[in-house]
């Protein structure tokens, strides 16, 4: 694809800005891949990416790009505010699994930032239910007070969201040197155990 600079607005720094039509790439793959390497061509220092991935289970970025380094300490701290009787068996088991990871993950975040990189953050993760589909259709009330026009826009997702699928929302600021290969998403896990913890409620230490 090529963008005609004559259709863009010149900036003082010599670059251009403007709006482009959304583009869809469709291809067959045995893995969930984002073409990150090609994006590197237009990046000077870093760029922010926001991923919404719908698949059969919760997913993560690979290796040092993982959001678990920031999510585990935040989730563990948020759980301390929970009413004990309302902690589910799954949450209690996950707490045991990640108990020793909190300090290690904080240390890893320090290492990541010393390399002038930023850790990824998990912003939303939920297994879609039939009730969620009804919310998109407008036949069920949204689970909390929100601007009516924003709730109305949820209908745009109807037909794209599938009941029984897991949607994971991940934000990551990529430095140019992190973009040398295409991004292959992996199954979310900590200590070799699958991470299926949902994250869609507002918690005391949630990211903005």
Short description:
The chain contains six helices and eleven strands. The protein is an alpha+beta fold.
Question: Can you offer a commentary on this structure?
Answer:
The protein has a domain at 16-128 and 164-194. It is 25% helix and 21% strand. It contains six helices and eleven strands. The chain has a three-stranded antiparallel sheet, covered by helices on one side. Helix 2 (68-79) packs antiparallel against helix 4 (102-114). The chain is globular. The two termini are 34 Å apart. The relative contact order is 0.25. Residues 204-208 have low confidence and may be disordered.
pLDDT averaged residue by residue: 89
Helix/strand order? EEEHEEHHHEHHEEEEE
Q: What proportion strand? A: 15-25%
Task: Give the overall shape.
Answer: globular
Total of helices: 6
Helical amount: 25-40%
Biggest β-sheet strands, sense, barrel: 3 strands, antiparallel
Q: How many runs of DSSP E, i.e. beta strands?
A: 11
User: Radius of gyration from the CA trace?
Assistant: 19 Å
Helix and strand composition category: alpha+beta
Q: Regions with pLDDT < 50 over 5+ consecutive residues? A: 204-208
Order of neighbouring strands in the sheet with most strands: 4-7-6
In whole angstroms, the N-to-C terminal distance is 34 Å
